[in-house]
Amino acid sequence: MKPLLVKRHGKTASAGPGPAAPLIRFAVSGGGVGVLSSLAVPLLATTLPWALSNAIVTTLSTLLCTELHARFTFATGRAAGRREHWQCTASATAAYLATGTAVHLLHLVQPSAGLLTEQAVYLAASGLAGTGRFLLLRHYVFTSHPAPSTQPSTRQGTAAPPAPATAPA
Predict the structure, then answer these.
(1) 57-107: per-residue pLDDT in tens?
(2) Is residue 40 part of a domain?
(3) Are 78 and 67 a contacting pair, CB within 8 Å?
(4) Terminal Cα-to-Cα distance of the chain (whole angstroms)
(5) Within-domain flag for 12
(6) Does residue 96 form part of some domain?
(7) pLDDT at res. 41
(8) Which parts of the sequence are annotated with region: Disordered (predicted)?
């Protein structure tokens, strides 16, 4: 069994990229942005419709979180590319629909819900959506995808056909 922590040059370092480290980084970066978003949405909703406020804050927080997740959470060593931004946008769209639906249902059930209740419902929906996003980002978006090969493919155990012989001139 591998030790969880290894001593290197007098410092304690993690033994490798297990599931706990990315989850903690995801919670800190995504959760921190999520908490700030949960404060920004209701405040912005005092001047704009709630759905528009949620869409604006979700869009901005998605751009920020995609970069944080690429560089920090999943340690890809590079900025997020177009593919990662589009895939994160799709998962954020699902999160937007989940949070928007949750708050809409709250307003149907309790039309005079206060700011704290609204924020609690928003955070609960964000937490559920965040769990799904972590799994999607970890296992699909920020995994290494091999570059397409420029070599012609051959089946295992078969050789490529020989090059045609040329007759001497």
Answers:
(1) 988 988 898 899 888 888 888 888 888 989 988 987 888 899 899 999 999
(2) yes
(3) no
(4) 68
(5) no
(6) yes
(7) 93
(8) 146-169
Residue 148 within a domain: no
Phi/psi at 82 (5° precision):
-60, -45
Q: Nearest CA to 30 among 104, 136, 143? A: 136
**Spatial distance between the Cα atoms of 79 and 9, rounded to a whole number of angstroms:** 30
Tokens linked to 59:
């869009």
In angstroms and rounded to an integer, the radius of gyration of the C-alpha atoms of the chain is 24
Sign (positive or negative) of CA dihedral 12, 3, 72, 26: negative
Q: Which residues contact 103 (CB under 8 A, 6 or more apart)?
A: 50, 54, 118, 121, 122, 125
- The answer to whether the CB of 16 falls within 8 A of the CB of 44 is no
pLDDT digit string (tens) for 118-138?
A: 999 998 998 898 888 888 888
Q: If phi over 0 gives left and psi between -120 and 50 gives alpha, with beta otherwise, what is residue 9?
A: left
Distances, alpha carbon 76 to alpha carbons 3, 17, 71, in Å? 24, 12, 6
Q: Which domain holds residue 123?
A: 19-141
